[in-house]
């Protein structure tokens, strides 16, 4: 197992305590900590602002700040950095209060041993990494890596603001992967997953990096593109179908990838909501799907 190097910022004014903490962190085999030590809160906070810190070990009693205030100032500067607080013997209560305010943990100086220290630091770092991943997962579809419905909703609101500010227009394209159910039923879910990933890649290849491409449901994809004067919805749809055809020519797969598509235009002169656009595009897509099935 390779240990991931973790960057720890230690804000501690007592040189003896600082050395002890560094020694304890470095003594436990298997974990690599890169420790930076700063004696004052103001310079510590500046260092935090530069980023790239995995964990802050914070003595609350510093030359330029004391008590819970120390924690609050540091936490406000970098809310995403997990903090483990160091308190003296007499003010363990302060540690408890810091945890209530959002510290990951507290350690009492003179009471803590190396293993406890390493455990607290590792746990705080891992938990904060897990939270980051969880945040990402809540807005992303893990299969395709595209934003999910929630992610799309947030990104689309931003795009809408941009379009309104530029007095521009946007195209919303709703694409539904045809026959996903029969692919899943006849060829298995792995093949169905592959078809979804291929669809995502096809959309990524067809549209621009600035367009929002999302998977908002089982077989439902959407693209929200700021409109370029040269591109009307037909051009975009044709481009997509052309790439789809090319994709179906290469490789061997027991079915053809097929997409039903509906597009609507958003004009900032006649605003409507993202949900309204989605509904309309979905309806148009469905019309095309019915047509595809008849032909
Ligand atoms: Mg101190």
TrEMBL record:
GO BP: any one term: cell adhesion involved in single-species biofilm formation
One example GO MF annotation: diguanylate cyclase activity
SMART domains reported for this sequence: GGDEF (SM00267), REC (SM00448)
All copies of domain Response regulatory, residue ranges: 7-124
CDD domains named among the record's database cross-references: GGDEF (cd01949)
GO CC term (a single one): plasma membrane
Pfam families: GGDEF (PF00990), Response_reg (PF00072)
UniProt-listed InterPro entries: CheY-like_superfamily, Diguanylate_Cyclase, GGDEF_dom, Nucleotide_cyclase, Rev_trsase/Diguanyl_cyclase, Sig_transdc_resp-reg_receiver
Coiled-coil boundaries: none
Name used for this protein in its record: GGDEF domain-containing response regulator
